[in-house]
């Protein structure tokens, strides 16, 4: 669980400078909703104030890095903690986040269920391959040769 979030602009997800994308990520909202709120605020309220605040945020906020600060010096392959023999944590971007309200960022429950079901199917096929290798005569032969 993250206790402290930093506010950055995200030009990779943004249309102009990534200010709305950074705000959406910071508040955990959908990007399209933040854009609609910003455009509505521009047209329905003081447009110059909203425009000036957007440009100010463009210059004040730093760009979001592709690699998190904690993993900057560590190569990608070794940034995961290993548990046991070959098991490792899943990276943060592989975790499924299910949204409970329409305005929250994340996947709809039906899509999240489909994604998780695909992951289980992929892992099951990998497990079946490992099981077929371990029970094969080739594995027995390799183990006996290695014991010599």
What's the short version?
The protein has 148 residues and is mostly helical. It contains five helices and two strands, in the order αααββαα.
Please supply descriptive tags for the structure shown above:
148 residues, two-stranded antiparallel ribbon
Describe the structure.
The chain has 148 residues and is mostly helical. 50% of the residues lie in helices and 3% in strands. It has a two-stranded antiparallel sheet with strand order 1-2. The protein is elongated. 7% of the residues are buried.
Report the span from N to C terminus: 50 Å
Give the SSE order as H and E letters: HHHEEHH
Percent of sequence in beta strands: under 5%
From the spread of the alpha carbons, the general shape counts as elongated
The helix content, as a percent range, equals 40-55%
Briefly note the structural class of the backbone. mainly alpha
The quaternary state of the protein chains shown equals single chain
Q: What is the mean pLDDT?
A: 77
Write the layout of secondary structure elements.
Elements: H1 19-27, H2 31-44, H3 47-60, E1 82-83, E2 87-88, H4 109-134, H5 137-147
Antiparallel strand pairs: 1-2
Helix pairs in contact: 1-2, 2-3
């Amino acid at each position: 669980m993250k206790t402290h979030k930093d506010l950055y602009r995200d030009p990779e997800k943004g249309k102009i400078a990534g200010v709305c994308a950074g705000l959406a990520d910071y508040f955990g909202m959908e990007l399209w909703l933040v854009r609609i709120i910003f455009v509505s605020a521009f047209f329905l309220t003081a447009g110059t104030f909203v425009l000036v605040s957007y440009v100010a945020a463009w210059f004040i906020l730093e760009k979001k890095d592709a690699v998190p600060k904690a993993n900057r010096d560590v190569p990608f392959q070794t940034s995961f903690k290993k548990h046991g023999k070959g098991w490792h944590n899943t990276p943060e971007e592989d975790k499924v986040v299910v949204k409970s309200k329409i305005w929250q960022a994340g996947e709809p429950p039906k899509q999240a269920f489909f994604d998780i079901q695909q992951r289980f199917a992929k892992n099951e096929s990998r497990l079946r391959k490992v099981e077929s290798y371990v029970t094969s005569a080739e594995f027995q032969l390799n183990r006996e040769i290695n014991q010599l």
